[in-house]
Amino acid sequence: MKQNVKQMTALLMAVAIIGSACSNNGEPEASSAPSPDAASPQTASDKYDPPITISLVGYTDDATEGVLGKLQGETFENNRWSQLYRDELGIEFDYTWIAKGQDQFKQKMNVSLASGDVPEFIQVDATELKQLQEADLIMPLDEVYEQYAAPLTKDVLAQDGSAPFDAATIDGQLMGIPNIRSSIDIAQFVWIRTDWLEKLKLPEPKTMQDLLTVIEAFAKNDPDGNGEEDTVGLLLQKDLFGGFAGLEGFFNAYHAYPTIWIEDEAGNLAHGSVQPETKTALTELSRMYQDGLLDLEFGVKDAGKVAESASSGKAGVSFGQQWLSAWPFQSNRDNDPNAVWKGYPLMSIDEKQALSEISLGTYQYWAVRKDSKNPEAIVKMFNTFIEKNWGETAEFDRYYLPGDAEGTWKLSPVTPEPPNKNLNAYLEIAAATAAGTLSKLTGEAKVISDKIQEYKGGNDGLWSWAAGYDTDGVYSVMNHYQENKLFQMNRFVGAPTSAMTDKSATLSKLTNETFMRIILGDLPIDAFDQFVEDWHKLGGEQITKEVNEAGKAAN
User: Are 282 and 528 in contact (CB under 8 A)?
Assistant: First the structure.
């Protein structure tokens, strides 16, 4: 009876924590057991014979469906990636259901889990990984990874240092395989419409004060030329932080780092959200809102809704990551060929250099249910994905970024990638451009360079590639960051502490609600001081203690 209660408790807990764990490519569900006489392959290259069938649940979105719409004869269930895994590994997929969008995915996953249908392979974040481990639902993967990961896989997954594995190591055991991602690619930039700068005869901003002047001009001086004051100075979205229309870069200009752990003057780790510099930045944001430089309704608009302002030509400045040229600014360009967005480095409010805050880019991990018959299958899929995109047998223009349908990588359940691949591609293109040897490029650099040349030849639908990777694209700024060490890295990258698991959601809600109310003027700026006290009382003090203890133990 106690065992049944324990299992049911674990299942109910899983319902609560797995719902947010969908990825760009879908979440695997429980796999069917292999045939009794099907032996597990003993090396990274062995093929299952007879094949095993892994039951998956699928996640799709508009971007994925856009890719499939350009691929004749391919579907979400049967495509070049599923065929490759079947032909080379003997792994077949059986999708129990496919959900579109995170909300539908969460609902369906919760139903599956509540009925006891626990996924065998689960992609989760670090907090969810710890919760699954504490519920005794998943198995350690140290030996599986060591035995089955190909040399190239081990090399790629080690390129961001030990941090991705540290975050997935709990009680000394590796509980998830990092779906490796770039840390530098989440750096912040200032994206500005340069055609509006030219129209209003404004110079390119060099300082944060210059940028504030530009933002005011874009809001007040009719940059779209329609005779109405209907443009937005700075794009913001209701969640306050994120890759598009977030505030990280704005805070960074004031040397505040509200979403990461930093080192204080005493050498201890402290959270950036409760530092005095954060209050200074909030003061300026509140002034900007009161002066009409921000969308008065941004507090109820998600990123998708805010993107409409950019696409329709009603905004000219946004903080955000390197991919904004692809979305939403390409759609602005499609609607108005004169619209030109450019990514600039963060600007400082004073003489001190502004640093872009970054965290560990790898935020999802593949965990395996503890009774899995073939836990090595997930590692073998990692091997194949990496080899076919960046190995000696790579077919990058088929499996990652073909000319006829960008983003076929989305059709694979696992999507690890070399952390610095994008910056390296830019550097290859820049060097080849200078040397006049673009025709000699290969792999990812060649595919991207071809798109840039096609844009220059008249295909304006590929403008975003030039805005990202041409010699003056946003990756030139990324390279500037890298060469001059202009990143402020999150100083805590280990597995979540106990208090983090219990209290982080509460503190995040407190932070966002307080910051929002201060910006909107519903609270005076001095409410920040009470927020700091509340943050510590509601769990921040204990988390800070545990974070510092974990840091000392690691050293």
Answer: yes
- DSSP state letter for 418: -
Six-digit token string for 181: 């991602």
324 plus 225 within the same structural domain: yes
Cβ proximity of 356 and 276 under 8 Å: no
pLDDT digits (tens, 9 = 90+) for 114-135: 565 667 888 888 887 888 888 8
- Exposed, middle or buried: residue 104 (CB in 10 Å: 0-12, 13-18, 19+)? middle
- Reduce the secondary structure of 221-288 to three states and give it as a string: CCCCCCCCCCCECECCCCCCCCCECCCHHHHHHCCCCCCCEEECCCCCEEEHHHCHHHHHHHHHHHHH
> What residue numbers bound the domain in which 400 lies?
2-182+365-411
Q: Is pLDDT of 183 > 80?
A: yes
CA-to-CA dists, residue 255 to 262, 353, 525, 536, 541, angstroms:
11, 9, 18, 21, 22
Residue in 516, 553, 174 with CA at minimum distance from that of residue 367: 174
Phi and psi torsions of 178, nearest 5°: -65, 125
pTM value is 0.86
Do 117 and 50 have their domain in common?
Answer: yes
The pairing of beta strand 341-344 with beta strand 189-193: antiparallel
Q: CATH code at 245? A: 3.40.190.10
CB 177 within 8 A of CB 168: yes
CA–CA separation, 75 vs 405, rounded Å? 13
Mean pLDDT computed over 472-501? 95
CA distance 324 to 555: 38
Residue 150 · residue 44 · CB < 8 Å: yes
- Whether residues 36 and 158 share a domain: the answer is yes
pLDDT of residue 99 exceeding 90, the answer is: no
Domain identity same for 117 and 212: no
pLDDT, position 10: 39
Q: Is the sign of the CA dihedral 443, 446, 447, 449 positive or negative?
A: positive
Question: In this structure, are 28 and 53 located in the same domain?
Answer: yes
Please tell me the chain's helix, strand, coil percentages from 3-state DSSP, rounded to the nearest 5. 50, 10, 40
Asked whether residue 157 falls in the same domain as residue 194, the answer is no
* Cis preceding-peptide flag for 328 (omega within 30 of 0): yes
